[in-house]
Amino acid sequence: MKLLLDFNLSPRLIGQLLDLFPGSAHLHELGFDGETPDLAIWAFAREKGFAILTADRDFVLIASKMGHPPKIVRFERMNFRTRFAVEIVRRNALRIAAFGESDQAVLILRNV
C-alpha cells in the first residue's frame, strides 16, 4: 500500500515511512500546491492507487459520500510533532496494511 501524504502533514514523514510503504509520496513533491481542491487530490489518489494519509476531516466526509478507492488513513486530533506521527504510523503499520486489503473506506489513527 502506498500513501499519499496531505499538505497538513510534514514532507519529512515520507523518508521515515518508505521502508514500510514503498512508493509513498507527499503532495508537495508531486507538484501539487496548497490550493489544490480536495476532490482533485481524491481523483489523483484513486487514479494512481494511493491511500490518502491526512489529518483533514474533509477526506473522511468525501469518503462517506463516495466510498473508496482511495482509502483514507486519518490522524485524529493531530496536534503533535512529526516524530510522533512517524511513531503512530509505524506502530500501526500492520493495521494499515490490513486496512488496505479490507472493504473499509476510512481508518482513524489516534495518539493513544
Can you put this structure into words, describing what you see?
This protein has 112 residues and is α/β, with parallel strands linked by helices. The protein has one domain (2-109). The chain has helices at 12-15, 38-48, 57-66, 82-91, 93-101, and strands at residues 2-5, 25-26, 50-54, 72-75, 106-109. A five-stranded parallel beta sheet has the order 2-1-3-4-5, with helices on both faces. It starts with a strand and ends with a strand.
Order of helices and strands: EHEHEHEHHE
Amount of beta strand = 15-25%
The coarse silhouette is globular
Radius of gyration from CA coordinates = 13 Å
Strand order of the largest sheet: 2-1-3-4-5
Attribute tags:
alpha/beta; globular; 112 residues
Write a brief caption for the model.
With 112 residues, the protein is of the alpha/beta class. It contains five helices and five strands. The protein has one domain.
What topology does this entry show?
Elements: E1 2-5, H1 12-15, E2 25-26, H2 38-48, E3 50-54, H3 57-66, E4 72-75, H4 82-91, H5 93-101, E5 106-109
Parallel strand pairs: 1-2, 1-3, 3-4, 4-5
